[in-house]
Fold each of these.
Amino acid sequence: MNIVVLIKMVPDTESRLEIIDGKVKEDGFKYMVNPYDEFAVEQAVQFKEAVGGKVTLVSLFSDNTSIDTDLRKMMAIGADETIVLRQQEYSGNKPSSNARILSETVKELNADLIMCGVQGIDYYQAATGPMIAHFLGVPHVSGVTNLELSGDKLIASRQIEGGLQIVETPTPVLITCQKDMTKVRFPALKDIMMSKRKPFDNREVGSEPGNDVQTTECSLPPARGGGVILEGEGPEEKVDKLIEKLKMEAKVL
Amino acid sequence: MNPFHDYYGIEWYLILLAWSAIALGSHFYQVGFVVRLIRLGKDDDRFNSWKQRLTEFLRDWLGQRKVVQDKVAGYAHALIFWGFLLLISDIVDLGTGGLLQAFLSNIQLDGIWNLIVDLGYAMATVGILIALYRRIIIRPAQLKGASIEGPLILLAILGIVLTAFIVEAGNMIGEETKYNTWEPIGVLFAKQMDGMDHATIASMVDISYWIHMILIGGFLIEIPQTKHSHIIGTIPNVMFQDHNPMGTMIPLQTNENNEAVKTDDLDFDNLTLGVNKFADFTWRQLSDGWACTECARCQDVCPAYKSGKTLNPMQIVLDIKDYGREHSSLLLAGDEPKESIVDRFTPDAIWACTTCYACVEACPVHIEHVPKLTDARRHLVMEAADFPEELQNLFNNLERNSNPWGFGAHTRADWAEGLDLKIGEPAEYLFFVGCAGSFDDRNKKVSRATAKLLKEAGVDFSILGEMETCNGDPARRAGNEFLFQMLAETNVDNLNSVGTLKIITACPHCFHTIGKEYEKYGGKYEVYHHSQILNKLRQEKKLKIRDFEDKVTFHDPCYLGRIGGETEAPRGALGGDLIEMERHGTNSFCCGAGGARIWMEEDADKRVNEIRAKEASKTGADCVAVGCPFCMTMMSDGLKSIGDDKPVKDISEIMLENLEAKT
């Protein structure tokens, strides 16, 4: 089975996040593999282990940040090779344009199965995957929580509000993976080291116009106020003060 | 009267020769077999510093230094041991029909020699009787479940001793009885026997002699098979004891200068990651199995064992011996048994260790328990990728944000807000804050207290700020040596770029790792625990601090006290009269956090910190002082869960509270 897994590099959730003039300041970011995409890699490798084939990782990212270590780790899990499309003016917030670029590369790879995370944890658009399916002219199943091979068909489960939907799809198909689809393995050191010998291809790409919207402003959620510790002699006085505050300030009593 | 005559027409020495051939043959065959097993192990060059080794050997082996730390069993053992050293030459004399005695009598030394041997027999008798009394009458808790082998062997060697006295005594009785006053105990026996009819005495002597010889031969055959292998096994064990500072670990790969090979240059094709096979251990780790006396002291001090976990450090050592014996034919043929070392130890036991080194400290014969477990962890993490799930978070967090909790690395210096500290600049000292002191709310207060005291005393220091990363100890003790090394290399690069060589830290794990381990990774620094610097400042009156008034007890952190060897500075820095817990100083009991245990699940009914919290609570102190951020967490939680609300404070916090205002 020839599987392509799309990887999005997203800012580490613990990166310093600053917004200046309504724009996210990106130059201090550290990047990591989008966690939803990790499920896709693990599931793809499991299929490969079961029926043979090849897993190729494809990522679109800016041209000046090294992501080798992160992607090698994905290869240590069991993917066979990586193609990184380097784009000068890359932004994670252009699903349409990005899907166009990615679908060209994916098309060349003749995949039976294309997998990616249900959404990127940077802009939560959940759009790129389905758009790629559209450009390739293949069906897609989104937000899959369980995926099984059944002959040359795939059985996918989708957790939807209040129930479970099970769908059957022929290949080729694009699947977007929901959280906890499978448990991502921790690669052994030997595998991490061996992954250095696997093909890693950086390709320069230009940009494609897409029907993407413009961000006009970003803002951080309002900072939470600090708590107040009530001082007083003994619990009784403290409780009195608390009641007064609940009445007068919070006005909940 | 002597037993040296023919028996049913066969000369006594022919009988003895035949028996000796069997006994010695069997003995040496078996010893050779064990030696071949041990030689399967990897090299570990400890054949150096001979003068130091000889001194240690005389002190620890001949002097029984650690053995006698257990007063009853220890001195009983020492008496038997010294007694046998004194009497051993008598075996030659009895085996040659008195040739040694005759030779010594020519040079006038027979009297002294008789006395020495007699004294030896007497000492052994006393020792054996104490040991038997302990095993049969007292029966201390750690002997519950001990095999019957112990008392049986004691009775056998008691037989060896008593029969020797009878033979000695028989020698004095004859046509004309002549007491040999050089053999006072022999004389006592002779006086009892004198007057019996000579035929009876003759058969008593004959029977005693042969029982004596049968027991000695039997003992020789038994030695290599049981815990009595320690009689031989302790010799290389004590002689080749570890000369590295306690707690230090071996890098993945070293070059000819014994420095670690950089992570980028590691030769992975020729690298065994950790231990899962018998032959993955070094010879010295294997020899431990045959040096173990099953005294169970390691078991008694082990926090994992005492809290009811699967691990028993003594069993780990015995596992090595048993595994080697059971799979010997496969192992010696170079084949691999189906059962691995990890299977034998069991993963639960491997992950239960807090790497507190109490077992190593307690062992009288220099067995190294902890490296066996951390080597097995290396295999489980780096080779098999099979380890407790919680550790995956730990490793990911350390990789990504270089701290165990995964807080954003850019917030590392936030604790210092408003203190106006130098960051990343050269200064006389560098304050290496550590992850807990940087990110954990409770321990940030300790960092602030320490920084305030240092400023108060006018110490010129800076911090690394965002350049600092975890020292790597949690990853390392959890088996992820590679991750440790990456963190160590980053820290060494950053520390060397700042150029400050004197480092202060409030974390004993940073203290140990940066001070004792980083040298192999290119970083040679003078590292101080904050209590050492604060104590010095206090003694030099650069900090004016009142003695505390509360009742305070101090919990020694393993990596500062036992492993770091520093038990005085924290006490000096605190000042005042401490109420000591029963186990303190180098015998302190672990809080349960070490060995990356703090990041692993612990069953609610098997918590190490509650055991220690109870000990602290029992002192009746109002406050528990600690000198380690992880002890801080563990002791606070432990006290809370046993329902004791006494506060836990770091040394620096207590000092700051008692700081006299500037005059």
Amino acid sequence: MDVLTCLGIESTADNLGIGIATSDGRILANEITTHVPEEGGIHPREAARHHADVVGDTISRALAIAGITSKDLDFIAFAQGPGLGPCLRTGATAARALSAYLKVPLVGVNHCVSHIEIGRQTEGAVDPLTLYVSGGNTMVTGYEAGRYRVFGETLDIALGNCLDVFARAAELPYPGGPAVEQHALKGETLIPLPYVVKGMDLSYSGLMTAATQELMKGSHSLEDICFSLQEVAYAMLGEVTERALAHTGKGEVLLTGGVGANKRLRSMIGLIAEEHGAEAKFVPIKYATDNGAMIAWTGVVAYMHGVRTPIAESFIDSKWRVDQVEVPWRG
Amino acid sequence: MEGMTLIAKGAEADLWFDPDWNGVRALIKRRGEKRYRHPDLDREIRRLRTLHEASMIHRAKEAGVPTPVIYQVDPEDATIVMEYVGGEKVRDIVDDLSGEMRYELFKLIGLLAGRLHGVGIVHGDLTTSNIINSPEGPVFVDFGLGEASNETEKRGVDLNLMHRMLTSTHFRHTEELFSAFREGYVEGLGEEAEQALGRMEEISRRGRYVERE
């Protein structure tokens, strides 16, 4: 059978990513252009405008790096959700246009599913318990009976969002995670902060508020607050991970999403996996952050199992849950 | 630990059986250290959860829901020593009971669950594995995920878990057992019961609680 080539478009938040993947499992290109707000957090409309401005150039760059032309593309994949509406719409519009112009099929992909699939592919994970932790998502998932089931998730804001908002209050650069991590290295004293695990779910909004209030009070050093914030935030995730691991008995833990780059979180997950006889696998940052390669690769996997998205059904769904998606390739 | 048998090793705690704890048979529940957590945070979490669980068990008993007698609580060592309740898990005996006995047992379990909710406690892990069929009747155990709450949502989660258990593990008698449970639950909780049962149905329809076949 011929090797098929797929171009994937990621545009769920501040990254516009274009990836190119092939049906024999190669990633030919993975180009990312990031929208950097002048101040504050991501403004969905401005990020969408940025994506519209750069999508053409980013596609050209990806094709050049892959050493192919648009004529070599067999189908187009795009992130159909979940994410910020205006950003998703921009990516979907580009995908529909490409598909119609090249007369090739379109494949809508769930963003969270694609984080899992790229990790399975690049890290050689077969059936992992996956922790997807980023600025927009925090969830512990695993495959069971046709779908990726959610064992635990945040009830309010994502862990990365908690770090970002705190970092902004502390006047640290965006994204907040790496800056908080650097300061935490010099912290020594653990300050009491709210540790909120409800059953298998997590809540980070109270932690964010409490950490920010400590900052305003000024009775502890920034280093100690960053240290404590990390210890509490990651331990909460660790607890849910451990329970899910005990419950499912899975042999691999896959850590992905931008927050997965954090060394303290990695060491915690490593210890938990060891305790339960599982193998910890960390997705490298270029595939763990929002990127086009994961969309292209998941597009390939879905396409090979008959998934097609006619234009009439290519509406974006900004709240598309990971456990609503049938994943026939795992059956 | 000398003379003791490890009964269960959970993600959160270990259970030990001591045949002679100051002359009585006892169950010892210990929340072990977690290496991945900062030691101060770890100590605090284990301490608070131990105290919390002991208080939930005690409050349930005050409400007339049979729970193990607590002999000793050591928050610093995150250990609860409690009465060893003899008998089988309800989970393991359902199929051996006659139709009438099954009905009476689940009506009583429903009544006790209703009473528990009525005094503002949700169990958090209400399954037939956490109810012991002792010679004196059903005893509710493992309040590790228990919470003080009057929220309809949390009551619904308790009921949904019980219903899911009856559907999966006890699929031969699902409808019969749940209707007995429901009858007792309405009697135990009163007029708020319908609201909680309605929420249970809503929860079971949500994507995140889709049945795991």
Amino acid sequence: MIVGERKTFEQIWDSIKDLKSVLILGCGTCVAVCQAGGEKEVGLLASELRMKSQLAGKDIKIGEATIERQCDREFFDSIKDKAREYDAILSMACGAGVQYTAEVLEPIRAIPALNTRFIGVTEQEGNWAERCRACGNCVLADYGGICPMTICAKSLVNGPCGGSKNGKCEAGQDKDCAWVLIYNRLKKQNRLGDLHKVLAVKDYSKQTHPGRYINEVYLKPKMEEKSA
Amino acid sequence: MPNSQLKQAFESGKFVVTAEAGPLKGTDITELEEVAKALKGKVNAVNVTDQQSSVMRLGSLAVSHLLKDWGVEPIYQVTCRDRNRIALQSDLLSAAVLGIENVMSLTGDLPSAGDHPQAKPVYDLDSVSLLSVISGLNAGKDMMGNELKGKTDFFAGAVVNPGADTEASYELQILKMEKKIAAGARFFQTQAVYDPVSFAKFMKRVEQFKVPVLAGVIPLKSAGMAKFMNKNVAGVCVPQTMIDRISKAEDKTKTGIEMCAELIQSLKPLCQGVHIMAIGWEKKVPQIIEAAGI
Amino acid sequence: MENAQFEPVVVAFCCHYCAYSAADLAGSMRLEYSPNVRIVRILCTGKVDTLHLLKAFEDGADAVYVAGCEEGSCHFQEGNLRAKMKVIQGKKLLQEIGLEPERLAMYNISASNSVLFAKAADEMTEIARKLGPNPLKKARGEVK
């Protein structure tokens, strides 16, 4: 899922303190799973902001709502009318969702409550880790299912740098050396020979942004133009 | 065909000695010039580091050129941390035009290690693909196959870490060394070695590649320095006997030089040369060389 | 002096199996403890959500605590451990908005420990007295 982390309370308060009303909009998909921006987190933030608003001698109207996802237009339908009652939407979705909130509910202002961190997995509840950098050219088949672009701090595709110490990356004790992981995984798979391939250099043109992916088959069909 | 003085030194069969000059932060080159004077004629070549430890400094291209002007053979170090393939190829052409003949391809420390941790890390190429690129430029073509109007003639080298401390990382170092040679590396310098026995084992593994290897040595200044390296520098393992010896020594400089010279003597039969990394006391290198009798 | 006249409102979420039983026992034993505590009986402290804790403060509580079984003895295995984490989260959020995290606490009280039940009640009431009324009440003009 896309993993996000709630911004500091200071940052959030700072971004809404001069408003008269704000609707906190949660997202029920990725950020709900990583417990950063789902319905529950909306409730907690709303309670915090109500109390802070009172303590600061202000009277900000705080609304709460959560939709299935903020990256698909249809889900905004249920809250469109409610949204119009507010100065701004404090979106607890990832960056994509915040932008769609701004676009779909234009001209109502959208303010992010989260910092989008990465595409990752739940290693343990409360502990989410990055696994994919969306490089657009997946070569996981060659590396025993461990991504050197993501897990290696330097995205090295031809073997480790000299900084690997005790199986850990020179970036820090908590980070595994991707290449040690790759070696050990390929060893378990009896595929150490694969390491001898010199892989082609990465094609970064695949990562120029903003990206777009179109599958014509799914575009809205048009009727064929009949000739006279 | 590359024909730098360094290459000729390897071909002569003599024990090759290289040292290191680390540029400082700023435009004041007085210190560098003094180091160059001290090393001139005493070593076969001098490495110029590229933003060592990810600390922003005077560039290795400019300093390699200065060394050449001052009569010292430079080894132009290039890391992949800060420049993309366009800039790297361009800098290599620039180096060639400025008469630099030896180049070394490295990955480069992470920006987080240095004094600009917010910098965007590049790593467009890695040390292996950079060597391929150098070979290509030597053959008159850029990375995309375009013909060059005037090619390069670099003698290219790379690094290897014989002290890698897990089976996986050790095997991968040797594997990567093979890849580097296939990509064009023609000499190697190692991370600092302190144990001739394990180094001998390593050399046994790689002698089949028939590529000259310079054993890296770092003279010790204090027990604190040794302990720091053991804790923080991957691949470096200073034995307790050496830590005790420098700790007990009254004249630490003298003992540090002695120990380094003794180490070089024990490494000499195992490899083709030595790379002396006397960080912060480059001017002592001639003393070390004399004490080691090389 | 304002604080001398101030009678704190303290809310205690007590689990049925342990803390509430201890409260019952304190009653049978005629132990005296702070009358300021409003007890909310719940099946297990594992059911307490951080939001319940925040809402108690929003509604004007001066102190709040969660009282569950001793660690390792939760009737529902880990309910009290989850509650512990909710209390930690609650303290963090209170601190973020400027309320004193000491107003919120976690206690582990076995069913027979009526003495500890009484002590907890008195302790939290004292803390609330020392810290003064919930700052929200002053901000809302409910106290001077």
Amino acid sequence: MVISVASGKGGTGKTTVAVNLALSLKNIQFLDCDVEEPNAHLFLKPTIQEKKPAFIPIPEIEEEKCNYCGRCAEVCAYNAIAVLPSSNNKKGEISKKGKILIFPHLCHGCGACSYLCPQKAIREVDREIGTIEIGNSGSIQFIHGSVNIGEALSPPLIRRVKEYINPTKTVIIDVPPGTSCPVVASVRESDYCILVTEPTPFGLNDLILAVEVLRKLNIPFGVIINRADLGNKKTDSYCLKENIPILMRIPFKKEIASAYSKGIPMVEVFPEYKKGFKDLFRNIEDKIKREEDRVGQ
Amino acid sequence: MKQIVVISGKGGTGKTIIAAAFAALAKNKVMADCDVDAADLHLLLHPKIVEHHEFKSGKIAVIDEDKCIICGKCLAYCRFSAVVAFKNDDGSLKKIGIDPIACEGCAFRSFICPAEAIRMKENTSGEWFISETRFGPMVHAKLGIAEENSGKLVTLVRQKAKELAEKQNCHWVIIDGAPGIGCPVIASLSGVDFALVVTEPTLSGLHDADRVIKVARHFGVLVKLVINKYDLNIDMTEKIERYCRDNNIPLMGKIGFDESVVKAMVEGKTIIEYPDGKTKEETKKIWDSLLSI
């Protein structure tokens, strides 16, 4: 079963929920898909056994085969290739050789240029976009990705991290904030998504956006209200109106905030929350089962 | 005219609260909300929309079912798992569909389809606005749900904000940035006079600020730092102060934890307009020190 933890707004407590849920259950695989700013390792302190670079394929031109026809630039949807054609003199001889410019940071690695090159002058080479680390924290299997500094595209790395999903385990995915492509890449194919919010105008505004994403992707979800005693009651009334289950409320406590600031998971300070997270998991299991029965009928 | 961007790496450290406070403090400026996929600045500035435009960007593949011969070639070549195969009971292909959310618009399949059944359709992936607020003009945007190209939309918002600021002889463009270090953040950094990084005294706050500072410096952008909610963990605040000294990052000030921040937010006000918050004076001091640079 794959459970993702997302939020829309950043800093609402995604990592707190994901980490503490993982620490309260058995047979867990933890994937940190917030590859721009991964944080779960600060709390789970995993022992890393393996570190691997992650790549996307980008084109490389074999200049001796290329005749600068410009087909590759024409088929590239991301403007990652520019071709300056050769110039000819009056006799039709090449007076100045053409030139090809490749912009690796714009390339999505779709493979169109190399496949469609009439001269077969393009081969694909690996470009490193980040690293993946694999290890364990106690009995939890831990995997996270981290994009290289200056790298704009995180979804390809998120997809690489998700290739490690082990279906025999309960998989918990820590999702990046926002509502655009990195979030979609992270939450896709989840059986359930927990949305963590705080009861403030910013929290609610971004929760509504996250709900739209999950409805579009057809993923069942529920809400955890963090720092539940701050702000106002509008998040409650929104969830009630939209028929969204509120799975849990976590109060604002200086002790929780202080433990968080030092990288200490809250279940270590308040072990009684383990029961809360176990109940949360059973509740989600029931919801998934009921959903499967409903679809199966 | 100076352009400054407020970023953080980690979400929820107080970027928007501080950017909105600057809106109230700065004279003669244009505001730009560049957190286009979860924008919040409008909740404090209450913009009245003057201009409304569609944001068209990228394309997505569409299959013409009448032309499709269901050969399955596109299935083999799409690297983004955007081609969906519907199968008959015996496992043979029944129909080919496209998942518009997974499609990254590469057009590869439209070139290789033997039946020419795939065409690329222009995608409207968001909208952008020029608005008036009680603190002056604001340019902002809304990326469509689960859409791509947030970096391009950020670039567009920045370009419009800059044009507006130049036309009206403004002194500042103040940009509210996105969390993370990916394409929208990179787009919000290009060509700014400096980036103000807002962090909090937590392990993750420092870890994430360090990553976004490296990104800013990678692109040659000057960085300054503010510690928000500094009194939640004084040891960690001292660690961040040391980090600033070791890395030559000017620390512009510290803001204490203050419940009136949430109260002001609930009332839809900036902290500058909210009576008796201590945050107000601390933020004013930060703005004054930014002015004196």
